[in-house]
Amino acid sequence: MAKHPIRKFQRLTTGDDAFRAKFRSWDMTELSYVDIREYLKEKDTVLVPMASTEQHGPHLPLYTDTITAIEISQRVSEAIGVFHTPPIWTGYSPQHMHLPGEGRGTITIKASTLNALMYDVARSLIHHGFNRIIFINGHGSNTKVVDPVLRKLRYETGALIGFVRPYMERYVGVLEGLMENPPEETPGWHSSELETSQDMAYDPDLVRMERAYPEKAHIPAFLPKSFQKNDGMPDVEFEGYQYFTFPMDHHEFVESGTIGNPMRATMEKGEEAFRRLSEHTAKAILELTKVPVTVTNREFVDRV
Q1: Which residues have CB under 8 Å from 2's CB, separation 6+?
Q2: How far apart are CA 62 and CA 52, in angstroms?
């Protein structure tokens, strides 16, 4: 269980004390259907945290990406008073499997399986009366494969379907100025400064800094040296331009699983990153609750 040693929290809604007092938790699985019905009398938004279970170098847990999705979802729920589900804890991570028998621990599912899982979860929620389904994603590679299911859900039901990416890879966004690593040390990449800081903020006992060390991405051996690679994206540079993409496994361009320098990570940076990302996400979702939504196809008929 997360310890949250320095957790900060900002409530973004006011005047809803009576509504909040009705619920012992914002995790809908900790409540009964009586509570679900009571919630749906006033609100129709639900968050679905989703990410992956995959290797994160020698010093971070396999659950790292899912920690991001859970923590952001919980904070958003508390900030604006909306339900969230348990996490979809595995995702699309084929590049993290490594060679057979190597014991890297990654649990991946096929793109079709992830789409089917997301579809069934959302259709179940829509069936019960939720009209706004917001997936809170913590794993970058999920973004490569989810567009079909997001569109299918919208086109079939009329529900508001959202997909949020509250983390930093190449795009710094609201975390501008927080990380100390220079760009060449890829502060937002795999198991680097940001993810290590966030895991420290979530539960410092999960982080093994005695095992941590910096490592940079490099071009896979199957490509000519005239190509270059600096981070975890599937695209590579040739003569300074990024027009080429190749299917690559993670261990082909970084041996340890860490891309960047985790040595400047701190618990305080992780807490501040969670605060900024969750507050931004909460404000946006609060705006989405004002949008008129008409669900045209609620019953989940094809459920067997």
Answers
A1: 67, 71, 202, 203
A2: 8
Would you state the structure tokens that stand for residue 22, as one six-digit string? 């009705």
Q: How far is CA 67 from CA 95, 175, 288, in A?
A: 20, 18, 24
What class is the 17-216+254-288 domain?
alpha beta
User: How would residue 29 be classed by pLDDT, with cut points 50, 70 and 90?
Assistant: very high
Which residue matches tokens 């618990």? 267
Cα–Cα distance measured from residue 107 to residue 157, given in angstroms and rounded to the nearest whole number: 31
Confidence of residue 11 (pLDDT cuts 50, 70, 90): confident
* Local structure of residue 223 (DSSP, 8 states): S
Could you tell me the sign of the dihedral formed by the alpha carbons of 180, 181, 183, 188, in that order? Answer: negative
Q: Is 16 helix (H, G, I), strand (E, B) or coil?
A: coil
Q: Which residue has the tokens 């989405």?
A: 288
Count of other CB atoms within 10 angstroms of residue 245: 10
DSSP 32: -
Task: Give the number of C-alpha atoms closer than 13 A to the C-alpha of residue 253, restricted to the C-beta side.
Answer: 27
Delimit the domains of the chain by residue range.
17-216+254-288
> Going edge to edge, which strands form the sheet with 235-238?
227-228, 235-238, 241-245
Question: What span, in angstroms and rounded, lies between the C-alpha atoms of 302 and 216?
Answer: 47
Query: CA 283, CA 59: separation in Å to the nearest integer?
Result: 33
CA-based max dimension of the chain: 64
DSSP H or E stretch at residue 161: strand 160-164
**Mean of the pLDDT values across residues 161-166?**
98
Cα–Cα distance list, 279 to 12, 204, 285, 295 (Å): 8, 23, 10, 28
Task: Kindly report the average pLDDT of the chain as a whole number.
Answer: 95
Q: How confident is the model at residue 109 (pLDDT cuts 50, 70, 90)?
A: very high
Which two structure tokens, joined as six digits, stand for 90? 């595995």
For the record, the structure tokens of 71 come out as: 């923590």
Q: Are 23 and 272 in contact (CB under 8 A)?
A: no
